[in-house]
Amino acid sequence: MKLKDRRMMLFSVVVLVIKMGQMFSMCGFVQVEQSSVVIKEVFGKYDDVLDPGCHCVPWYFGNRVAGALSLRIQQLDVRCETKTKDNVFVTVVASIQYRALAEKASDAYYKLTNTKAQIQSYVFDVIRASVPKMELDATFEQKNDIAKTVEEELEKAMSAYGYEIVQTLIVDIEPDERVKRAMNEINAAARLRVASNEKAEAEKILQIKRAEGDAESKYLAGLGVARQRQAIVDGLRDSVIAFSENVPGTTSKDILDMVLMTQYFDTMKDIGASSKSNAVFIPHGPGSVHDVASQIRDGLLQGNATKS
User: Fold this and answer.
1) How do strand 89-100 and strand 53-56 relate by DSSP bridges?
2) Are 257 and 293 contacting, i.e. CB atoms less than 8 angstroms apart?
3) Taking Cα atoms as reference points, which of 266, 262, 271, 307 lies closest to residue 289?
């Protein structure tokens, strides 16, 4: 092929491309992304909703793209300050999840200028109408009820504008910082009171058990002393009987005096042998042994008479 023919062919291709570009430009092809729609108007009037894909919008017939609308779920966080029934100011944080409906895309696009501001106004209205009826503790306990009330009111209001309320959450309730400190102090005081009661109850139980143990110890000690005295009495009786049989002419009184004196001197020996004993002054002499025995016997007889 000659050079001249090649140049003519190349020129024809360039002209064809230019004409095709002009044609595409006149047709106005539009690409719509996934999860979104495009609003089409003809001479400024709503005409159609373009779904995802490629569409021809010939501008020379008055067609134009008015705007795009996302169908994805969107989230709006709203902070609303209000007052509870017991006059505590709190900040309620609500999270609203919403989306535009494809079948009502024209309503969602044309009826609302600022969707977020509209939703925020409804949230403020519902929260400030619900929370003042509750006390602070009830507000924390019933936050799911508050979220349900907000969602129901928003659903009724926004469905007329082509929007669906997917979910409403009350994510936080923030009282004033001073109220937080007061609540923490009340909680701490209540826990300290419970701890004090438990400690007092434990000490009471310990004292009762200690008293029971002391009483049981004294009871057993009394039994031991009684048995000891009974053994002493039995031993003395056996000694008196044996001495009377082996030594004729002695009476029970003589034997008892001798036993008492023996016990007396054993006691004196023990007192003298103890390193911690103090000085004990007792009148003593050869003629006073009989007096000591008489005193001991008289003391025993007086004690018996007092008991009887």
Assistant:
1) unpaired
2) yes
3) 262
Residue 230's identity, in one-letter code, is Q
Q: Which of 31-35, 92-96, 134-138, 201-205 has the highest mean pLDDT?
A: 92-96
What backbone phi and psi angles, to 5 degrees, belong to 94?
-110, 140
End-to-end distance of the chain based on CA atoms, in angstroms?
160
Which spans in the chain are helix H? 3-27, 105-110, 115-130, 136-141, 143-158, 177-246, 252-273, 289-307
- What average pLDDT does the structure give for the chain? 78
CB atoms within 10 A of CB 229: 10
Answer yes or no: pTM beyond 0.70: no
Torsion of CA 113, 114, 119, 124, to 10 degrees: -110
Tokens of 192: 């300290």
State the amino acid at position 7 in one-letter form.
R
Residues 6+ apart with CB under 8 A from 40: 46, 47, 48, 49, 50, 55, 57, 63, 64, 65, 66
Maximal C-alpha separation, the chain: 180
**128-165: pLDDT as tens digits:** 999 999 988 888 889 899 999 999 989 988 988 999 99
Beta strands of 43-88 (E only): which ranges?
45-50, 53-56, 63-70, 74-83
Token couple for 224: 């031991």
* pLDDT single digits (tens) 104-114: 998 988 888 88
Only one residue has tokens 């003298």, namely: 272
- In contact, 76 and 86? CB cutoff 8 Å: no
pLDDT score of 147: 92
Nearest residue to 152 (alpha-carbon basis) of 173, 133, 172, 130: 130
Determine the pLDDT at residue 25. 47
Mean pLDDT for 271-279 is 64
Percentage of the residues of the chain whose pLDDT score is greater than 90: 15
